[in-house]
């Protein structure tokens, strides 16, 4: 079966010294630490993550795609690079650097790669201009954004113009958790990634639904990482809360959240067949797409293996999960090889 992986991450092999350039810190650097290896460091020297060449080397990732049977990867930056806390024009310069590199990788193998840009969402006007550049000049399919922007949830009016521009431009939007809530209380056990990330995705979905973003922008094609995070497992509670306390929940949008199930996409990165079946039942089999979080360890080591393993899903439905649904979300046809 043909396969497209909508959730993969890419960095340039080299990046400017942003701290030196901008005069303040907090940015991520990439430092070589051995053959085919590098370390992502905060610019105060604090380690963030050790990575391998498949994060920046297009040929290395294509070789691994060939082994795994992945025909197309949708590329996006590593979420820690969002840097929404930076000064807006500095955030724009960082985003343009990442987007230019990502677009060059897509152009090098358009049959194998599709690109999602990143935006300086701390300033809606700058973000909208960069979104237009991504779509009209760089040939990207859309953008990846964070689950919140500093103190703004995705329902904040400050962000609506960006979503409206995405809908008008036909840009696919992929929401990825970052800067996890409660991180100061989750220093041990990798809890920001195990607990915080699923909560962030649910926060993002609820903000979009309760904030009326999809109600006002029915053509917006938006997807959420990690199978919707904690949202599928807590949807009954979310719906019940809407029903019993509309005075608290339905303050910006009177439409029941169940109405929007089937209106947005999620990826398949849930690690368990029973959970994936729950996700399929909640969102609909046409709104789930293969996403592996390549090349990171919390991802699916063999992209698509979980989908292929489902015993009660017809081959045609598996093909939709592995291929067709992604192109519907991206709003384009695959490039012929």
Radius of gyration from the alpha-carbon trace, in angstroms: 19 Å
What is the CATH topology classification name? Answer: TIM Barrel
Number of domains: 1
- The mean pLDDT is 96
Keywords:
337 residues, alpha/beta, eight-stranded parallel beta sheet, 12 helices, 13 strands, 41% helix
What does this structure look like?
This protein is of the alpha/beta class and 337 residues long. The protein has a single domain (58-330), classed as Metal-dependent hydrolases (TIM Barrel, Alpha-Beta Barrel), CATH 3.20.20.140. The protein is 41% helix and 17% strand. It has twelve helices and 13 strands. The chain has helices spanning 18-22, 58-68, 88-108, 124-136, 157-169, 191-210, 213-216, 231-244, 246-249, 273-283, 305-309, 315-330; strands at residues 4-9, 28-34, 37-42, 47-52, 72-76, 113-117, 142-146, 148-149, 152-153, 172-176, 222-224, 265-267, 288-289. The strands form three sheets. It has an eight-stranded parallel sheet. Strands 2-3-4 form a three-stranded antiparallel sheet, with no helix packed on it. The protein has a two-stranded antiparallel sheet with strand order 8-9. Helix 4 (124-136) runs parallel beside helix 5. The radius of gyration is 19 Å and the shape is globular. The two termini are 16 Å apart. The model has no long low-confidence stretch (mean pLDDT 96).
């Amino acid at each position: 079966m043909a396969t497209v992986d909508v959730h993969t991450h890419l960095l340039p092999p080299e990046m400017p010294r942003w701290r030196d350039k901008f005069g303040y810190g907090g940015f991520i650097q990439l430092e070589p630490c051995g053959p085919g290896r590098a370390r992502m460091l905060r610019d105060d020297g604090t380690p963030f993550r050790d990575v391998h060449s498949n994060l920046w080397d297009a040929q290395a990732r294509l070789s691994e795609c060939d082994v795994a049977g992945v025909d197309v990867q949708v590329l996006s930056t590593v979420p820690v690079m969002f840097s929404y806390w930076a000064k807006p024009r500095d955030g724009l310069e960082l985003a343009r650097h990442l987007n230019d590199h990502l677009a060059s990788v897509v152009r090098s193998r358009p049959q194998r790669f599709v690109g999602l840009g990143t935006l300086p969402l701390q300033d809606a006007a700058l973000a909208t201009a960069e979104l237009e550049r991504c779509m009209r000049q760089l040939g990207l399919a859309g953008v990846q954004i964070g689950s919140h922007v500093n103190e703004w949830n995705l329902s904040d009016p400050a962000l609506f113009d960006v979503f409206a521009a995405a809908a008008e431009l036909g840009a696919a939007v992929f929401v990825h958790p970052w800067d996890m809530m409660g991180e100061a209380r989750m220093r041990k056990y990798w809890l920001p990634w195990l607990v915080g990330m699923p909560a962030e995705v649910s926060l993002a979905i609820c903000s979009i639904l309760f904030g009326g973003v999809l109600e006002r922008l029915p053509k917006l094609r938006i997807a959420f990482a990690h199978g919707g995070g904690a949202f599928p497992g807590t949807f009954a509670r979310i719906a019940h809360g809407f029903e019993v306390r509309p005075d608290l929940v339905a303050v910006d949008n009177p439409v029941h959240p169940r109405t929007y199930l089937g209106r947005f996409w999620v990826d398949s990165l849930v690690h368990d067949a029973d959970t994936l079946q729950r996700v399929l039942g909640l969102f609909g089999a046409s709104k789930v797409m293969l996403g592996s979080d390549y090349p990171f360890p919390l991802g699916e080591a063999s992209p698509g293996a979980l989908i292929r393993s489902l015993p009660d899903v017809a081959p045609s439905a598996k093909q939709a999960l592995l291929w067709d649904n992604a192109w519907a979300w991206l709003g384009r046809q695959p490039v012929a090889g």
